[in-house]
Amino acid sequence: HNPGQVIHSAVSHIPLGPELEQSIPEIKGFTRFSRFFDEVLLSYDDKRFLESNGAYADPGDFKMFSVAFLSGDPDRVFDEPNSLVLSKDFAEKSFGDIDPVNQVMQLEGFFDLKVTGVIENIPANSHLKYDFIVPIVLFERWGTDISDWNYWGTLYTYILLNDDADPALVDGKLEHYLKRFYTDTGDRLYLQALKRIHLHSFGRINYDNYSSLEDIRFI
Cα separation of 44 and 173, whole Å? Predict the structure, then answer.
């Protein structure tokens, strides 16, 4: 909330998910999701691929969403920070008939990432599409403090409520939640049900389609 305007944003602060899980008992899980900013170079042996469809997430991503694993243990694939999970198509393009699990790919010629799982290709009607995904803790290895409440530009937070939780009650707890960290903030949090994202997200700025001030509502 700014004077004369309200900006609705889908992105959130990077420490929000873990903080909510710890402090609100109705929340039983979370995941954060962020896309790679641009094309990156992934290489294996003498093969090199410029890829733009990469993402970061927490381990909760594989529990919260319907991700079908062809190989690897979804409960363990992000045990190590240098882990890498590939889609079926990208795994076949990169490794052919070789089993990708435990193979090492290099990112940007500097970082070694070990393949820990292969998943079915993400369906075209998902808004969380990617060809490869790495743990969000790699943000720290690459220079971002994931405890920094000032970082919120390109990251989405998803929470999973207990089966008997009242979403309206949780929404009430969230409204002024950020005042714990910013006493003078005008920002307020609110929930949006996953099934409403596709058809009911008009006016929300997000990293994927933000283009102009048309995404800002003035009141």
Answer: 47
Of 5, 3, 67, nearest to 205 by C-alpha is: 5
Q: DSSP per residue over 153-183, as a string?
A: TTEEEEEEE-TT--HHHHHHHHHTGGGGT-T
**How many C-alpha atoms does 147 have within 13 Å on its Cβ side?**
0
Q: How far is CA 152 from the centre of its chain?
A: 12
By CB atoms closer than 10 A (0-12, 13-18, 19+), residue 91 is buried
pLDDT digits (tens, 9 = 90+) for 9-21: 888 999 999 999 9
CA–CA gap between residue 113 and residue 105 (Å, rounded): 5
How far apart, in whole angstroms, are the C-alpha atoms of residue 22 and residue 28?
A: 9
Burial pattern 181-208, b for ≥16 Cβ within 10 A else e, equals eeeeeebebeeeeeeebeeeeeebebee
96 C-beta neighbours (distance < 10 Å), count? 9
Using CB atoms within 10 A of its CB, is residue 106 exposed (0-12), middle (13-18) or buried (19+)?
Answer: middle
Note the pLDDT tens digit of each residue in 131-156.
999 999 998 888 888 998 887 768 89
Give the pTM: 0.88
The three-state secondary structure class of 64 is helix
23 Cβ contact list (under 8 Å, min separation 6): none
Instruction: Give alpha helix (H) positions in the chain.
Output: 16-23, 61-64, 88-95, 138-141, 167-175
DSSP label at residue 117: E
